[in-house]
Amino acid sequence: MDYSKFEQMAANVRTGVIKAIAAAGSGHPGGSLSAADIVTALYFNEMNIDPSNPKMGGRDRFILSKGHAGPVQYAALALRGYFRHEDVLTLRKLGSNFQGHPNMHEVPGIEMSTGSLGQGFAAAGGMAIGCKLSGDPGRIYVLLGDGELQEGIVWEAAMSAAHYHLDNLCAIVDWNGLQIDGKNDDVMKVAPIDEKFKAFGWNVVVINGHDFGEIFSAFDAAKACKGKPTVIIAKTHKGRGVSFMEDQAGWHGKAPNAEEAEAAIKELGGEF
Amino acid sequence: MADKMATRQAYGQVLVEIGAKNKDLVVMDADLSKSTMTAEFANVYPDRFFNMGIAETNMYAAAAGIAHTGKTVCASTFAMFAAGRAFEIIRNSIGYTKANVKICATHAGITVGEDGATHQTFEDLALMRTIPGMTVVNPSDGVSAKELIRQCVDMNGPCYIRLGRAAVPTFYAEDDEIVLGQGNMLRGGRDVTVIATGIMVAEAMAAAEELAGKGIDVRVIDIHTIKPLDEEIIIRAAEQTGKIVTAEEHSVIGGLGSAVAEVLVKNCPVPVRMVGQSDTFGESGKPDQLKEKYGMTAKDIVHAVHSLGL
User: Fold this and answer.
1) Which chain A residue lies closest to B61 (C-alpha atoms)?
2) CB contact under 8 A, A160 and B69
3) Taking CB atoms and an 8 Å cutoff, what residues of chain A touch B85?
């Protein structure tokens, strides 16, 4: 199958990320770029959503538990038609709706305000319970960072999601291997991620998080799995798409200057 | 004052009553349902009850998630582990997102008793009232607890409801007017006003009775809603009686006493004395012994009134 239109859209999303963070002068490019293909797959193929009716009943919901990657969600929502592209360029500025970490009451399409790590994942579990109680067919997708897995609440939430058989919940771990202070393995080893989730009673799928074929197949596998939640462990590269940012922990929370941004945008070949 | 009932018991009963009418009510607990009294709801409405295990931070974030699908959630554990352990989750996932979650926290204060210092929270009112948009309620008896819980469930938005372990005298009648955000003057008086909350309201009433015997005319106000605070009734009391004593089963730092002082210092500065837990941890003991040792009885209120020159 030809995934070039998704690859181009992901390049557009990444371009939005770079433009917004460069305009803000601060932000988190590394983890926004690593998640761009997953987020693109969700908003442009996987999820049942309607940009003209963001609160549509029965919709699928996406929660960015790694809220510091807000720019990737803002860029994807803008490209999907939730709001104007230029709005996103007010990121992190005083009075902007586009907060440093997403606020559900200020930006249409944001389902949960996140930023304090681990909480979006736990809230997603709650939404999955709520939807089941209401007979709502919507599925809940939640994206976590790998460093985020160091938060204790993540494992509390993993336990309860399996306990309550939340098969309408699909978590994705953006497994880029890096966090602010360096490699996960050096800072606080979270591996083996797959074995941990298996032990907690989850259906586990491990994929290349930059391969649309694998991403789509994983979402299908998640939907087919009944009786337990699914986690997709997506191997990714921090800073993906911008060669000088790739696999560099230093680009976790640093904005490119004008020159770097120009080079990044040129390399990405996207439009935003 | 014939009957006695713990406010947590009132909570258990009113949950079942509300659950019959409100099908969107969901109740959660963290392995303390027999103590918080949510077990009564769980028995009647098992499909709408979720035991989240001993994992309070997940419970409160999940409560926010459930609420954001259109439900009203009452989520319970001991006050120490709700306001204390889960503070930042409550602040960011419930407060900041304006989630329709009622944090019904039981076993607050020194009257937890024998469990001792790790379970005796004196900080919860202080913590909760700093969260923007959080309604903070501390009922004084079973009747007012039920009515205030009904009103909290009827409003949309986060609430913190502080409930106690020990049985306390019931002094409200079923048809008394109890309104969220409005203090209740339970006794008129001209010489001094005791502004009390929670179980200290009963102590304030006893103190007022004792002081009446000495010719001191004490006004008693029940501030069951710490936030939004009924500033008017407090300012009026200061203007009319000129002296204020606050009484709470909570630290004197940051709770009712501080809230009252914040109002008075701006509007009508008068001498204030605060009865409550001084800046110290508690210990094991029987509730009555602890109240006496840590200075939260009618006698302590009487002393505070005398210290104002009366």
Assistant:
1) A123
2) no
3) none
Among B26, B64, B68, the residue with its CB nearest the CB of A133 is B26
B179 found inside a domain: no
Q: How far is A125 from chain B (nearest CA, A)?
A: 6
Query: Does one domain contain both B119 and B225?
Result: no
| A260-270 pLDDT per residue, tens | 999 999 999 99
- Count of CB atoms situated within 10 Å of the CB of B34: 12
If asked whether residues B231 and B300 sit together in one domain, one would say: yes
Q: Are residues B143 and B206 in the same domain?
A: no
With bands split at pLDDT 50, 70 and 90, how would you rate the model's confidence at B2?
low
Judge if B30 and B59 occupy the same domain.
Answer: yes
Chain B residues in contact with A133 (beta carbon < 8 A): 26, 47-48, 66, 69, 71
Rounded-to-integer distance, Cα B13 and Cα A191, Å:
47
Note whether B164 and B199 are same-domain residues: no
Tell me what the mean pLDDT of segment A59-65 comes to.
Answer: 98
Tell me how long chain B is: 310
Domains, chain A:
4-268 (3.40.50.970)
CA Rg, chain A, in Å?
17
Question: What is the SS3 assignment for B221?
Answer: strand
Q: How far A111 CA lies from chain B's nearest CA (Å)?
A: 8
Token duo for residue B219: 């006004």
CATH code (residue B141): 3.40.50.970
Q: For chain B, how many structural domains are there in total?
A: 2
Pairing type for strands B272-277 and A203-208 reads unpaired
| C-alpha distance from B45 to closest chain A C-alpha (Å) | 12
Active site residue B232: no
The residues, ordered by sequence, that sit 6+ positions from B266 with a Cβ below 8 Å of its Cβ are none
Chain A contact for B132, CB < 8 A? no
Does residue B177 lie in a domain region?
no
Q: Which of B56, B147, B203, B248 is catalytic?
A: B56
B152 lies in which domain range? Answer: 4-169
Residue B303 lies in a domain: yes
| Euclidean distance between CA atoms A194 and B28, whole angstroms | 29
Last residue of a domain, one of B169, B203, B223: B169
Give A-chain residues touching B100 at CB under 8 angstroms.
none
B66 and A126 in contact (C-beta within 8 Å)? yes
Burial of A78 (0-12, 13-18, 19+ CB in 10 A): buried
Q: A3 at the B interface (CB within 8 A)?
A: no
B97-118 pLDDT tens trace: 999 999 999 999 999 999 999 9
Same domain membership, residue B203 and residue B140: no
